[in-house]
Design goal:
By secondary structure, this protein is α+β, with helices and mostly antiparallel strands. Helices cover 35% and strands 26% of the residues. It has two domains: 8-176, Ribosomal Protein S5, domain 2, CATH 3.30.230.10; 179-297, 2-Layer Sandwich (Alpha-Beta Plaits), CATH 3.30.70. The two termini are 36 Å apart.
Length: 299
């Protein structure tokens, strides 16, 4: 059984769960188990949920979830379906933990929006538990990356790294991001996110995927070979506001590149300066006051 330090049992630990952006997303093939193998260039930005976690002295293996924040309403009743609950459950099973655990989620990121909010929350939960129980994060990743991606979702291993990386297959393979991609995101460090007031089912997008109908007629041609999202065409068909969001981004001063993250509906634009990013965010917010719009630096 993994031993808990007495100090840790009296302390609340906090971890930022940073938003994830898929700069690209390529569907490689469909697996026999029904999942799709993918390859995606991923970055993280300085907008985040916050996970606060405390381990109690009581030893009944209970996991308690509390939530606050602007997007907390939609996760309050998830119970055992909450990814933080599932992450904690996986951890206590793997490391034979008996203590009760309280997890508080400050939910600042929109739900089902393609920026990995739930996955990042789950990863932050694992990070905090590893810290509390003196387990090296690298060891946790190396030992259980495949199980984490299968049980918690393909984005969770990437969120455990929270840096510029390339994820592959069902997320369990993590590689350094390519030199060309890294050069772009290191040269232009400002990003604007635009999330239409809609939710898109990831399962629905993947179920509709057909490689023969992929259309990646994106923006600046010199970036098209780097940043393609095979799911964008299907998200635009299901939810036209995804196209509208990209059009708004494309018209802003200083825009370098724009696309959709993950399976949507969040769209993003990378900008040349902080001022242009802030101005773009304010203009889009004025035009679409009901949409979630924000700007950030790239980590």
């Amino acid at each position: 059984m993994t031993v808990l330090n007495l100090f840790n049992s009296m302390t609340t630990f906090k971890e930022k769960a940073f938003a994830k952006i898929n700069l690209s997303l390529k569907i490689l093939n469909k697996r026999t188990d029904g999942y799709h193998n993918i390859e995606s260039h991923v970055i993280f930005i300085n907008i985040y949920d916050t996970i606060s976690l405390k381990v109690l002295n009581s030893r009944k293996k209970n996991i308690y979830i509390e939530s606050t924040g602007p997007f907390s309403k939609k996760i309050k009743n998830l119970g055992k379906d909450n990814l933080c609950y599932k992450a904690a459950l996986l951890f206590i099973k793997k490391y034979n933990i008996e203590n009760d655990i309280v997890i508080k989620i400050k939910k600042n990121l929109p739900i089902a929006s393609g920026i990995g909010g739930g996955s990042s929350d789950a990863a932050a939960t694992l990070k905090v538990l590893a810290k509390i129980y003196n387990i090296k994060l690298s060891k946790l990743i190396n030992n259980y990356s495949y199980e984490i991606s299968r049980e918690l979702g393909a984005d969770v291993p990437a969120c455990l790294h929270s840096k510029k990386i390339t994820m592959k297959n069902i997320g369990e393979i993590i590689k350094n991001i390519s030199y060309n991609t890294k050069t772009v995101v290191c040269s232009y460090k400002w990003i604007v996110l635009v999330t239409p007031n809609k939710e898109i089912s990831t399962k629905n997008i993947f179920d509709n995927f057909n490689r023969k109908t992929i259309n990646n007629n994106n923006n600046p041609k010199h970036f098209n070979h780097l940043f393609k999202n095979d799911l964008k065409f299907y998200a635009e068909k299901i939810e036209p506001s995804v196209t509208d969001a990209q059009k708004l981004l494309s018209r802003q001063e200083g825009i370098i590149f724009y696309s959709m993250s993950g399976s949507g509906p969040t769209c993003f634009g990378i900008f040349d300066t902080q001022n242009n990013a802030i101005n773009a965010k304010n203009k889009i917010k004025f035009l679409k006051p009901k949409w979630w719009t924000n700007w950030s630096s790239i980590l």
